[in-house]
Design a protein that fits this description.
about 75% helix, globular
């Protein structure tokens, strides 16, 4: 148990630094690390992705709280946008995680790999989406929130990777888009974690110390460290050539996506 806790703490440290450095969701790093590590600690292979996704979502409850509070102190959270997106976010995240609980781990691996390719391409290309329209009406915000929630719950992220581009596309200022996306990460994480817990209650062969699909030892190790290392990553972002590092990291994401995709066949 001590060895596994140290391993999870190391993952949390890496995820925290990279999240702060590149402004990406820690789940993009945590999910593949957990999926690769869980089998070595005896967790069941046919539930690896469910456990990895659920544990990543649960960790975001803690990391997103500290993040959005910091953004809110700077006045960077648009609470009117938050209120309009959140109903769709809650429904999409909960329903998405409930559906994911019944999907085969192979499908979830494939979906995650495709999403990593998408993120890798966006990071390598760089730039920001140009504002092309205004925020949609109630139905549009509900639908957009629902889509963001479903996809986020299937890849174990807080939604910033999707929410920020959507808000920028809708002419929301960049710092407000980032701060609002950080706040939206909390309802995504809460709803998706609830869905993964509820969805896992019917499963009889989950490992000890699991709450539904959330593996508590991994959650403990990750959260204790990641909340400390994320601010360090933010400081590094102001002293390192982040644009060049992003291109290198995008190549790493491409490799991880390919490795996970190939694991479906070999």
């Amino acid at each position: 148990m001590l060895t596994s806790l140290l391993a999870y703490a190391a993952m949390g440290a890496v995820a925290g630094v990279l999240a702060g450095l590149f402004g990406i969701g820690g789940g993009l790093v945590l999910v593949p690390m957990l999926a690769a590590t869980f089998p070595h600690f005896g967790l069941p292979g046919h539930q690896i992705m469910h456990l990895a996704l659920a544990t990543s979502m649960a960790s975001i409850i803690f990391t997103s709280t500290s993040s959005f509070l910091a953004h809110n102190r700077r006045g960077a959270v648009d609470w009117s946008v938050f209120r309009r997106l959140t109903p769709g976010i809650l429904a999409g995240s909960f329903l998405g995680s409930m559906v994911a609980s019944f999907l085969p781990t192979g499908f979830l691996k494939g979906f995650f790999s495709l999403f990593l390719y998408f993120v890798s391409y966006r990071m390598f290309r760089g730039g920001k989406p140009a504002g092309a329209r205004q925020l949609p009406g109630t139905a549009g915000m509900l639908g957009s929130g629902g889509i963001i929630g479903v996809i986020s719950s299937w890849v174990g992220i807080g939604g910033g990777t999707l929410t920020v581009p959507f808000l920028l596309w809708c002419n929301v200022q960049a710092h407000t888009a980032v701060g609002t996306a950080a706040a939206i990460g909390l309802p995504i994480a809460l709803a998706a974690t609830t869905g993964y817990v509820a969805g896992g209650l019917h499963v009889g062969d989950l490992p000890a110390w699991s709450l539904g699909f959330v593996y508590l030892p991994a959650l403990l190790g990750i959260v204790c460290i990641s909340v400390l290392t994320a601010p360090y990553g933010v400081r590094l972002a102001h002293s390192l050539p982040v644009d060049r590092l992003k291109k290198a990291f995008s190549v790493l994401l491409f490799i991880v996506a390919t490795r996970m995709g190939l694991s479906l066949f070999f």
